[in-house]
Design brief:
Bound molecules: adenosine-5'-diphosphate
Distance between the termini: 107 Å
Structural class: alpha+beta
Strand content: 15-25%
Number of strands: 17
Helix content: 40-55%
């Protein structure tokens, strides 16, 4: 109950009212009693005086006999409706209205008699042994000619005055009780009214705590409660703004993390993953929902990553290292930083350098390849020239042979340089395509016709499956033919005698492209090389590629991509390869054939 503010306000009032009312009623009832007793006393004195005047003649001058005046006493007692006692000068009972005088002790020592003796009038209130009740006594001396002849005592039971006093006291108590009840109710009502706004405030505060930040209170007064309500509403406003700002910042952070290319992962002090962005999930080959709450070791699953994270935890310092995850063919630069949030959290950053490293490898390979490709013909040229100079000049037929060989080497070098130039022109977009709707047959047939003799020499069957009804493709015809030439030429080169090369074309499922495939039954390409054969100078099988430069497929891929198409290879070592590329279907709005015709691109040597 004391935890309730209503009662805390009301209770002191209630106690105060109770005390005040109690004290007041006690005081009033006492005062009433005292005044009643004083009145009783003075009435008794008056009555005693009347009795004295009438008793005086009957009192004997000398010692009287006990009980001799009982009748007189009785008569006055009847008149006054009180107890009347007539006492002799020595204290003996001469007359008594309410008891047997003979049984009564000497009364000279009674306080009222003593007082009367001394002061001329005495009174006393006490318990009467004779009548066994509380009495008020008034005594007066009786004198005849200045000589004391006795005392008259009149007494009444206090009950007589007590009854009205009790009545009065009851009335006072009832009134006090009613007043108290009324005051308590009033105090409780006032307290309830005072506490009401506080209760409302509590309710709204609770709603806010539960997330309803729009909860507000109506300001109904201008007192302290009103001010508190206003302050509370203001606080709600501020809170909502802060929460909104935080939510916006959080959203922004989430978006940044979502879109980041680098992997970000945060672990708590127990080493559990608290946060990871999609990039991190992808790099670590896991799902965001699965990884959250797991230990870092369970999520990273790589000894180097786990070691790095442990070192950071142990030293409290940033750690960074290049980590290669071979299973996923990934090369990462990993930074583990302790977060200064006092909770021993760590931030793990994963930069994916796989692509960069691949490019570096390609560049390195490119340089070493080009040096290698140049060195061989240059070395043989040098040898030819030296031989010519030293010995063959004197032997014209031999000299002619050497010169023919030198010419071939120079042709091969020129071919390579041309291909390289062509490649870089396509790559840099300096060789714009002259696109025009072209029948698929126009792209496929000329190269096949041209390469047929070469296939025959290799004892290979080169054939084309009958073309279905296909729409025209939007291509630069010369360059599209170059793609076919290079692919078929490779197929011839890498297929042992007796094999077959089949070219086919069909409409791609998406209907917006024609897919052309060149299939052979040749040596095939090892799986590990398949992703790299489209790189410049890359040769899967150097022994077999013979005079090839390793540039043919690089040109093919660039040309196909420049047309908006895609190329892929399917191959099994020892069983053959199928290269498939797409060319876009020409729509009705496609441009018409341009004039003049395009410059022919270099074909592969046949
Ligand atoms: P080149 O033929 O001049 O060596 P390419 O770029 O045309 O260069 O081909 C690159 C490599 O791809 C070749 O060296 C060869 O190892 C492989 N390759 C290409 N086509 C085929 C094929 N049809 N069958 C087997 N291997 C092939």
């Amino acid at each position: 109950m004391l935890h309730n503010i209503r009662w805390r306000i009301a209770l002191p009032y209630v106690l105060l009212i109770l005390t005040a009312m109690g004290a007041l009623s006690l005081y009033l009832s006492n005062a009433a009693r005292n005044s009643a007793l004083a009145e009783l006393e003075s009435n008794l004195q008056i009555e005693a005086r009347a009795v004295v005047e009438n008793v005086r003649p009957a009192l004997p001058a000398g010692d009287g006999r006990v009980g001799e005046l009982d009748a007189l006493a009785q008569r006055w007692a009847d008149i006054l409706s009180a107890r009347v006692t007539i006492i002799g000068p020595a204290g003996e009972i001469l007359g008594e209205s309410h008891a047997d005088a003979a049984m009564m002790a000497n009364h000279l020592r009674r306080p009222e008699v003593q007082e009367a003796l001394v002061t001329g009038a005495g009174s006393n209130m006490r318990f009467s042994d004779t009548l066994q009740q509380e009495m008020m006594y008034a005594a007066l001396p009786v004198q005849v000619d200045g000589e004391l002849v006795g005392f008259v005592r009149v007494a009444l039971p206090i009950d007589r005055v007590q009854a009205p006093i009790v009545d009065l006291r009851n009335t006072i108590f009832t009134a006090a009780l009613l007043a108290t009840i009324f005051a308590v109710l009033l105090a409780v009502a006032i307290a309830a009214r005072t506490a009401l706004p506080l209760r409302r405030l509590t309710r709204v505060a609770r709603r806010m705590a539960e997330g309803d930040l729009d909860a507000r209170l109506l300001v109904t007064s201008r007192d302290e409660i009103g001010e508190l309500t206003q302050a509370f509403n203001y606080m709600g406003e501020q809170l909502r703004e802060k929460v909104n700002t935080l939510a916006e910042e959080r959203g922004l952070l989430a978006t940044v993390l979502e879109l980041m290319v680098d992997g970000v992962l945060v672990t708590d002090s127990d080493g559990r993953v608290q946060l990871l962005n999609p990039a991190a999930a992808q790099l670590l080959n896991t799902q965001e929902e699965e990884a959250l709450g797991l230990s870092f070791a369970q999520v990273a699953r790589h000894y180097q990553l786990i070691d790095l994270w442990r070192q950071c935890q142990a030293s409290g310092e940033e750690q960074s290292e290049a980590v290669e995850i071979e299973a996923q063919d990934l090369f990462l630069h990993v930074v583990v930083t302790p977060l200064q949030d006092g909770r021993q959290s760590s931030l793990v950053l994963l930069h994916d350098l796989t692509q960069l490293r691949r490019l570096q490898t390609v560049r390195r390979d490119f340089i070493s390849n080009i040096s290698h490709e140049l060195r061989t013909p240059l070395a043989s040229l040098k040898a030819l020239v030296e031989t010519l100079r030293d010995t063959a000049l004197d032997d014209p037929p031999a000299a002619r042979r050497f010169l023919d060989r030198a010419d071939q080497e120079v042709d091969a070098l020129t071919q390579m340089v041309q291909e390289l130039l062509e490649l870089s022109r396509i790559e840099s977009g300096k060789a714009p395509l002259r696109l025009a709707p072209t029948p698929v047959a126009d792209v496929l047939l000329p190269p096949l016709e041209r390469l047929k003799p070469q296939a025959r020499r290799g004892n290979l069957t080169l054939s084309m499956e009958p073309l279905p009804d296909l729409p025209d493709v939007l291509v630069d015809a010369e360059r599209a033919r170059q793609v076919v030439t290079n692919l078929v030429h490779n197929a011839i080169k890498f297929t042992p005698p007796g094999g077959a090369i089949t070219v086919r074309a069909r409409l791609a499922p998406s209907q917006d492209a024609v897919a052309v495939s060149v299939e052979d039954t040749g040596v095939g390409i090892p799986a590990r090389d398949q992703s790299r054969i489209f790189e410049r100078f890359y040769k899967a099988d150097r022994a077999r590629s013979g005079g090839g430069t390793g540039l043919g497929l690089a040109i093919v891929r660039h040309l196909v991509q420049a047309h908006g198409g895609r190329i892929r290879v399917q191959s099994r070592e020892g069983q053959g390869s199928t290269f498939t590329f797409t060319l876009p279907v020409a729509s009705e709005t496609s441009p018409q054939p341009p004039e003049p015709p395009p410059q022919p691109a270099p074909d592969r040597p046949s």
